[in-house]
Amino acid sequence: MSAIFSKQFDTKLRLAAAAVVLVLGAAGAVLGYLLLPQQVDTGYVPVQPVAYSHKLHAGNLGLDCTYCHYTVDKSRFAAVPATETCMNCHVRVKEKSPQLQKVRDSYATGQPIPWVKVHRLPDYVYFNHQAHVTAGVSCVSCHGRVDQMKEVMQVQPLSMAWCLDCHRNPAPNVRPVEYVTKLDWKPEGDPAELGARLIKTKGIKPPENCSGCHR
Q1: Where are the domains positioned within the chain?
Q2: pLDDT per residue as tens digits for the range 65-110
Q3: Long-range own/partner contacts, residues 142-145 (CB < 8 A, 24 or more apart)
């Protein structure tokens, strides 16, 4: 039976097919890399309904994180402040600013401001803010220097590998509890040495098994 294509044409066809496979494979690898959690989520900055500046409030004015996120040391969740918390100040501060009209409307109607969540974990991941904060893990370890951000940005991947890296070696991220919300705080010596002492004193043993985060 005679061949449909000549040997020369068949060779060219095979080379072309191989080239297509290589290109598709490379494109798939690039796409896979871009879709990794640390690539998709790190740097995420959603547009918020009100232009709230953490740099102004937490940085320049020195408001403590727990003034707004008041459940962070008591609950799994770091509460988003109610509008009443904002109005504790803004009844008198910039009370006529057009930038705060949505805040005043929320206060008058009782309808919450639809803030957009920045740091999101999958539903199958169990994370407890209280456990971390009371152990001495600072906000800065996961959220970065929020006190320097006009718009809050996700700075860490929050991936399983990233969390496990800390659970396996938590010492660099553990500090005295009274400094947890002091984002610019630095110990006099090596942070890891201080953290190791605190871990030993408190008997901190971060879980490394699956059930620690997947319940």
Answers
A1: 7-35, 54-80+119-212, 83-114
A2: 999 999 999 999 999 999 999 999 999 999 999 999 999 999 999 9
A3: 143/119, 145/183, 145/184
